[in-house]
């Protein structure tokens, strides 16, 4: 056995949970993603999806993907920079920029590569990147890849953000990067206060709209629009893997920033462009969310109903204001066990343990879609209540 294998053979945490019968990962879904999914020949209620708009199984989105594959083929065989740009990519970029209210946009192959490629290349050695300590892993990795000085503030603690800004050289660029909606806790970034501090300290703001797009703001334009602060936010990032029912991501900003990124973001230049099918599916989903306001209304009806039901049932759900509902467990073993009990009862939810949260904050994450019915929500609340009570969490 080589040294590497010897070292890695000691890593057996997953096997420990498998031995206990509570390993919750890589569960196989045998059909389309909707509010119900087929698993092991059974129907399971899906409360673990990020497809807030409920469009992943929509026939129009699927058709758009199929047609693009027929027209353009299965892949682009190169990066956007060289042979991988389609007219379809450019159309999607134009429509996304207009949708989120910025001059221009660039599409990347995933949301993760937007954050890792954009954040790492904007600032230099003498500049600062400042993040909320609950920012998504892709933001953390973008920050780590940068040569800039790196500062963190306590989650949504604006006094701590100001403290970090005071440490910075006033003449250097100070890039504040935040999740608009925090992906595990479901609470919103305090954008009004962050914008106030931007002006006070001459900083720049980038907002990750992964969980805001299709959910907040007019027609689902995102959290920046929800707060009426689009013009104050310098860079808006989004992903296609949630409300846009596909895979890919984008960054939108003014012309000078996009010109820089187009020629310097390494995950954009040195990685193949998004597939025709994925690009066309995202474009179709973008059209649907603009043309069907009833979808956004249905999402909020389901969300408000679920929030009320979980609160009434006595769950600790933190400060969520979104379709992401964290049910705090505060114990890693019990988090896995409750996930398993819920699954056995036919409810799919996601366990959240470190490093996705602090060790004392483990939780199971329930996520709503526009297509969930009240009956499905009632059933999930009932089954989760039973599972939580069995383990003395509730
Ligand atoms: C806040 C946030 N940013 C970025 C990403 C990465 O997006 P993608 O899945 O499209 O790579 C995610 C996905 O989990 C996310 O939750």
UniProtKB/TrEMBL annotation:
SUPFAM superfamilies according to UniProt: PLP-dependent transferases
Enzyme class, spelled out: transferase
CDD domains (UniProt xref): KBL_like
Cofactors demanded by this protein: pyridoxal 5'-phosphate
Gene3D superfamilies documented for this protein: Aspartate Aminotransferase, domain 1, Type I PLP-dependent aspartate aminotransferase-like (Major domain)
Stored PANTHER family: CLASS II AMINOTRANSFERASE/8-AMINO-7-OXONONANOATE SYNTHASE, LD36009P
Official protein name in the record: Serine palmitoyltransferase
Originating organism: Bacteroides faecalis
